[in-house]
């Protein structure tokens, strides 16, 4: 089927006007010229439907037309089908109904990466590395991710029967799991980096983020925290309301957090702190990188402008476009940019773009491949300068520029490839190692993190594992070399990732990421 990728702006606005006509004058504002173009568009669609050489899906043509016009506006105005919008709302809600596992498809087998804390699967004893091979008596081998969701997710309170293969256990395991509402944690790590420094890794801004952070802060204070590292690296944003509530915890009342500026009165606003601050004097640093965007930039920009926190790491993404949501009858939605964000000092967070394309590449990993390109944005001399409340100079020009720049840890490319999806070879090895060597692994994660050592024999065993016939084929498909010359420079990184993913295989993925903190240059230099 031919796709109608772009039509005129006016024509597609007509399309949106028709779709939203029942929603009142705040959406249906088009005048006579738009209606005349509407007739042309209707005629075109009717001619295509009747005369085109192949059968066509008119709904898909309209969807493509809508997306085509939005490409001419900015990178973040977007149209979502009903299914896409429902999935997005689930992400922002911070929960869903299901069995409570994160998973990956390894060689066509549904493999548990983590049984989520407080979820139905964790309560029954499912573990990282478990392979779900049947669901309701039907083979799950070779399922797509969509098929997994269709069969495993369902209304809370309903049951699903699964058959599990567990490494190190000969017999098949049978579980009847009662689906429940599973909370998607906004926080992945809460830890003490030393006797005084607490650490919170915040992944997203969903509906429960501010409450989850408050709980984490109280937990860390009980454990002796006197200073905080708030890690927003890779946090692409989420709900602005949660960014405001989070910032409000650290600032006194009556201070501007962020301003929005647009063409209409409703788009111009100033959001200020309340008197509900709970940690106004806690010394803190905020870690950011190129993956920190939107709500993350609101938080870091406000804390920097009010001299409340030290911002450390790399210049952030630079996403400061405010979207308003327009819902349509069929459940689809338009997210349309109506304003831009500005920090309290007046800095525009948004970086340059043309249409839906940004002008600079972005790299977002905390542990970046040694052959990954650096982002070369404007230098300080080329950036507009602004002044904080205490008189310090801060820089505009797109994104939040850190007070202290620290490069991310560099990782040899082959180790990074083996660590990440779709390969995840360290995790797969970690599952096997944990099953075969349980007696050698400390029972307590803190003891493991402090004392467990990856030996030369373990490294050699891992290399034999990745060179095995079972693993070699996917490596070759992903152009991962297995020669000694390729592997030798990566041996230190291999040791680190082995320890990380052995922890993940025993205690879950967040503990694996906590292991990596000790080898993270940006974290270690911050404290």
UniProtKB/TrEMBL annotation:
**Name under which the protein is recorded:** PDZ domain-containing protein
Q: Which InterPro entries match?
A: ClpP/crotonase-like_dom_sf, PDZ, PDZ_6, PDZ_sf, Peptidase_S41A, Tail-specific_protease
Q: Which residues form a coiled coil?
A: none
Spell out the residue ranges making up region: Disordered. Answer: 365-387
**Keyword Transmembrane: yes or no?**
no
* Molecular function terms from GO: endopeptidase activity; serine-type peptidase activity
**Gene Ontology annotations of biological process type:** proteolysis; signal transduction
Species = marine metagenome
Q: Where is the PDZ domain?
A: 85-153
Q: Say which family it is in.
A: Belongs to the peptidase S41A family.
A UniProt-annotated Pfam family: Peptidase_S41
**UniProt keyword terms in alphabetical order:** Hydrolase, Protease, Serine protease
Gene Ontology terms: cellular component: outer membrane-bounded periplasmic space
């Amino acid at each position: 089927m031919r796709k109608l990728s772009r039509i005129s702006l006016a024509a597609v606005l007509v399309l949106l006007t028709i779709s939203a006509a029942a929603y009142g004058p705040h959406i249906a504002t088009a005048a006579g010229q738009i209606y005349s173009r509407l007739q042309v568009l209707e005629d075109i669609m009717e001619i295509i439907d009747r005369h085109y050489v192949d059968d066509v899906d008119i709904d898909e043509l309209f969807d493509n037309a809508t997306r085509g016009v939005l490409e001419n506006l900015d990178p973040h105005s977007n149209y979502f089908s009903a299914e896409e919008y429902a999935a997005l709302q689930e992400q922002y809600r911070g929960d869903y109904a299901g069995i409570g596992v994160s998973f990956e498809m390894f060689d066509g087998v549904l493999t548990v990466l983590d049984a989520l804390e407080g979820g139905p699967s964790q309560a029954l004893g499912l573990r990282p590395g478990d392979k779900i091979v049947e669901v309701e008596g039907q083979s799950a081998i070779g399922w797509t991710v969509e098929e997994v969701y269709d069969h495993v997710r369902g209304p809370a309170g309903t049951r699903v029967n699964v058959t599990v293969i567990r490494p190190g256990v000969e017999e098949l395991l049978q579980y009847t799991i009662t689906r429940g509402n599973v909370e998607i944690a906004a926080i992945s790590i809460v830890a003490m980096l030393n006797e005084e420094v607490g650490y919170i890794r915040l992944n997203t801004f969903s509906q429960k983020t501010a409450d989850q952070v408050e709980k984490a802060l109280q937990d860390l204070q009980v454990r002796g925290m006197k200073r905080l590292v708030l890690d927003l690296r890779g946090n692409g944003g989420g709900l602005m309301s949660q960014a405001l509530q989070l910032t409000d915890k650290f600032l006194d009342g009556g201070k501007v957090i962020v301003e929005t500026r647009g063409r209409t009165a409703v788009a111009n606003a100033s959001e200020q702190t309340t008197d509900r601050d709970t940690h106004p004097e806690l010394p803190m640093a905020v870690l950011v990188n190129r993956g920190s965007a939107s709500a993350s930039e609101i938080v870091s920009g406000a804390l920097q402008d009010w001299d409340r926190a030290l911002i450390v790491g790399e210049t952030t993404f630079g996403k400061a476009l405010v979207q308003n949501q327009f819902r349509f009858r069929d459940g689809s939605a338009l997210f349309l940019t109506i304003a831009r964000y500005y920090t309290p000092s007046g800095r525009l967070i948004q970086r340059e773009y043309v249409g839906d394309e940004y002008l600079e590449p972005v790299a977002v990993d905390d542990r970046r491949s040694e052959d990954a390109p650096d982002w070369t944005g404007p230098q300080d001399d080329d950036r507009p300068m602004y002044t904080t409340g205490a008189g310090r100079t801060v820089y505009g020009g797109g994104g939040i520029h850190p007070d202290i720049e620290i490069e991310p840890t560099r990782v040899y490319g082959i180790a990074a490839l083996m660590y990440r999806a779709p390969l995840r070879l360290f995790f797969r090895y970690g599952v096997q190692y944990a099953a075969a060597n349980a007696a050698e692994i400390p029972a307590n994660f803190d003891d493991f993190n402090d004392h467990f050592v990856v030996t030369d024999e373990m490294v050699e065993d891992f290399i034999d594992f990745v060179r095995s016939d079972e693993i070699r084929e996917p490596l070759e498909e992903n152009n991962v070399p297995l020669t000694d010359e390729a592997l030798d420079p990566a041996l230190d990184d291999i040791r680190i990732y082995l320890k990380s993913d052995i922890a993940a295989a025993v205690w879950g993925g967040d503990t694996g990421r906590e292991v990596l903190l000790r080898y993270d240059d940006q974290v270690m230099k911050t404290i």
